[in-house]
Amino acid sequence: MAKVKLIEVTRKFNNVTAIEDITFEVPDGEFWVLVGPSGCGKSTILRTIAGLESVTSGAVYIGDDLVNHLPPRQRDVAMVFQNYALYPHKTVAENLAFGLQMRKVASTTIRERVEKVARSLDIFHLLDRKPKQLSGGQQQRVALGRAIAREPKVFLLDEPLSNLDAQLRDDTRAELKQLHQKVGVTTIYVTHDQIEAMTLADKIIVLNRGIIQQIGEPQEIYARPNNKMVATFLGNPPMNILPGIYVGDGFKIGEQILGCPSFVRDTLKLTQGQGLDLGIRPEYIEVIEPQRRRERREEIGGGELFVDVKVIEPLGRETLVRVSLSGLDLQMEVLTPGNWRGRVGDRISVQLDLNHLFIFDPVIGNTLY
Ligand code: ATP
């Protein structure tokens, strides 16, 4: 096992800068996830660690060794791709053993390792089958097993679950997590799926346009995003962003005024007429039933907005309601209990929990509050 360290790594392809000034250190044995939208540079980072891509500038360390100029096979890393290519004519056992045979590992050791890995991934009963006799999920587990059997210092996984259907994806994700807890190999995992990132990671690196936006534990990034991109990328349904104008006591949002909490006013030096982006997660918006509005007047305070119901999406335990605000060309998402009985076209009152309000600079996007 080994730590992985990148210092100011940049990779350019002619005039395209795929990644820029990437610096981070994954401690020995941890599971880190690189996440971000398509084209943000996730795979390029992984490939520079694997040695499949050279760096334009900067340093890559595995353990204490600078590996910039080492070819992939000398880096002792195992990479699993989305399109895991298994050898079609070899059995599962032979696929698992192949990398070890190439390394001239003793045959008794190979047999032991193959069996151990096959048991831990629940593919022991499949050892004699050929890949085409396996389901997609089973094939994916063989591909993971092949990487694990090599006992590399570092695992690099590039969207390894993206070919699986939803149920299998959830199951394999949970297996991966348990496996890491058992094996404890330093792992760097690439995904554009924020749920995978949140559930698997010791730490998440959020990337956008080749630049690191934030590094932190999942909950920390979720609760304290550095900027609007991170705030809206992590969380499902995503954080709502409402353009507002500061008007003294509150923010003008479309044709309505949302109260500005005193703790925000005391912290930020806002000026009248200043444009801001306000952020609120759907779970911090509550639909106020008309009959309860009067009794809740006090607590509703300045957080109330009137909205029009546009789309209702029952999710089972909860219902996702998309609403519009008059004077604004956008929709806001609100989570209500599953038994909520509203209708499309209703005008309803919603209460924003202002203790969970974010404020972003509307131009640069950085978090102001
Ligand atoms: P995805 O989630 O779509 O796989 P990604 O985040 O993994 O995307 P990369 O594949 O690392 O992104 O690509 C980052 C940027 O570098 C993109 O703009 C891509 O077009 C560019 N890029 C990657 N490889 C090359 C290459 N060999 N030649 C030219 N440009 C490249």
TrEMBL record:
Residues 4-234 form the ABC transporter domain. Keywords: ATP-binding, Nucleotide-binding, Transport. CDD domains: ABC_MalK_N (cd03301). InterPro entries: AAA+_ATPase (IPR003593), ABC_transporter-like_ATP-bd (IPR003439), ABC_transporter-like_CS (IPR017871), ABC_transpr_MalK-like (IPR015855), ABC_transpr_MalK/UgpC-like (IPR047641), Mo/tungstate-bd_C_term_dom (IPR008995), NA-bd_OB-fold (IPR012340), OB_MalK-like (IPR040582). It comes from the Bacteria. GO terms for molecular function: ATP binding. SUPFAM superfamilies: MOP-like, P-loop containing nucleoside triphosphate hydrolases. This is ABC transporter ATP-binding protein. It comes from Floridaenema evergladense BLCC-F167.
